[in-house]
Amino acid sequence: MTNVRLGKFSKVLLHVLIIFLAFFIQTSIFPLIPLFTCSPNLLLIITFSYGLLYGEDIGIFTGIFCGLLCDMYFNGDFGLYILIYSVIGFANGMLNESFIDNSITLPMILSLVNGFAYNTYIYITHFLIRRRFNISYYFVSIILPSVLFTLIATVIIYKLLYKLDIFHKKTF
């Protein structure tokens, strides 16, 4: 019984540490790299990956936690990031039952869909409401590079998260 509790606790602790590490890299290291006009959204990758690997409950809680970190870090209306991340975590968690674990195709497709949904949501809540209608500039300069960087990072990060999940299942 205590081994099961220890296993669940270590899994939760590992998830929290991964989220904090991704948040740190996304907000502190990527902005320092001069080659990037934008950076991959690591928290988005983690949110939809956890939803896909573990289901709706873990997906939505991961989304709430990632969104809370973003809401506390970025200026603006509180709760906007919590909403989008939790919806993405929940929606991808609904695909958990029909997902073949070792395939990278579905995570890549979801990375594209989630990236466009996230960036469209950010455009609407941060720019369109403030009457900044230049969507073509925003699409070419921000959405497209961000989605492509996130897609490339998904291949690496999802494989690592999947291998950590397999290792944790074997260990506990």
Summarize the entry for a quick read.
The protein is an all-alpha fold and 172 residues long. The protein contains 6 helices and no strands. α2 (42-54) packs antiparallel against α3 and α3 (56-73) packs antiparallel against α4.
What characteristics describe this protein?
172 residues, mainly alpha, Arp2/3 complex 21 kDa subunit ARPC3, 6 helices, 77% helix, globular
What does this structure look like?
The mean pLDDT is 89. Helix 5 (105-126) crosses helix 6 (135-171). The protein is globular and about 50 Å long. With 172 residues, the protein is mainly alpha-helical. The protein has a single domain (2-171), classed as Arp2/3 complex 21 kDa subunit ARPC3, CATH 1.10.1760. It has 6 helices and no strands.
Write the SSE topology:
Blueprint: H1 2-29, H2 42-54, H3 56-73, H4 80-93, H5 105-126, H6 135-171
Helix pairs in contact: 2-3, 2-4, 2-5, 2-6, 3-4, 4-5, 5-6
